[in-house]
Amino acid sequence: MTTALAIFVKTPGHSPLKTRLAAVIGERAALNFHRLASAAVAAVAESARPLITPYWAVAEADDAAHAAWPDFPTIWQGEGDLGTRMHHVLETLLSRHDSVLLVGADVPQLTSGQLAQAAQALAEPPVAFVFGPATDGGFWLFGANTPVPLAIWQSVRYSQGDTCLALRRALPATGSIADLPVLADVDNADDLPRVLGALGRLPEALPAQRALADWMQRQLAEFPTA
C-alpha cells in the first residue's frame, strides 16, 4: 500500500498569496508566512517517509513555477475552482498510489503521526475517506482511496462555515469516514495566534516549525491581532 500526500501551494512571484492575511500584515509578511509554513509542512511530510510519498501540488503550470518547489515531485493542480483542482490532483495521484491525502500549506502544526493515522485508516476497509476538520468549518486534510466524482467536488461551496459538513454529506456511500483532530489553519491574521499556540504545544516540534513559530512571535509583536 502506498499513500501520496499532495501539498497545495502557490508560487511566490507567479500568483497572489494569502490575500486576506496580506490585507492586515502586508504582502511581504504574508509571503514570508507562506514560505515558512510551506517549509514546515514539507518537513513534516519528509519525516513521514516512507509511509507517505510527498508531492507539491503547484497552482501554476509553467516550468519556472515548478522549479521553485524542490525536494518533492511536482504536479499541476489544473485549472478551475478549488473543487475542480482537488478532483484533478486526487485523480492524478490515485493513478499512481493506493490512497491520497490533500493538505494546504497553512497548517504548519500538523504532525507526522497525524499523516500516518490518515494513511493507516485508508488502508483498513471499510474506510474510504479521511477528514481533518478545521476550526472554521472547512477541512485541513482530505484523504481518499477511491475516486470522487467531479460533480461532488463542484457541488460544495468552499471557504464557508459548513464546507466540511457539506462535502461529507455529498460523498458517495462507498465506505466509511475516519476523522483526524480538529486544527486551525491560517486564512487571515486572526488565525495566527491560534496556530502559534498550537506550534508551541507540539511535544517535538521540527526545526522548520520552530523557525516559523519564532517568526510568528515577532510578527504578532509588530502587528497584534487581538
Description:
With 226 residues, this protein is α/β, with parallel strands linked by helices. The protein is 42% helix and 18% strand. It has helices at 19-25, 27-47, 63-67, 82-94, 112-122, 150-154, 163-170, 192-200, 207-222; strands at 3-9, 52-58, 74-76, 99-104, 127-133, 139-144, 176-179. The chain has a seven-stranded mixed sheet with strand order 3-2-1-4-6-5-7, with helices on both faces. The longest helix has 21 residues, at 27-47. The protein is globular. It starts with a strand and ends with a helix. The relative contact order is 0.17.
Measured on Cα atoms, how large is the radius of gyration? Answer: 17 Å
User: Assembly type of the shown chains?
Assistant: single chain
Distance separating the two termini: 46 Å
Number of strands: 7
Give the overall form: globular
Q: If strands are numbered along the chain, what order do they take across the biggest sheet?
A: 3-2-1-4-6-5-7
Q: What fraction of the residues are assigned to beta strands by DSSP?
A: 15-25%
Look at the helices and sheets and give the structural class. Answer: alpha/beta
Unreliable stretches, pLDDT < 50, 5 or more residues? Answer: none
H and E string: EHHEHEHEHEEHHEHH
Helix content: 40-55%
Mean pLDDT rating = 95
Largest β sheet strand count, sense and barrel closure: 7 strands, mixed
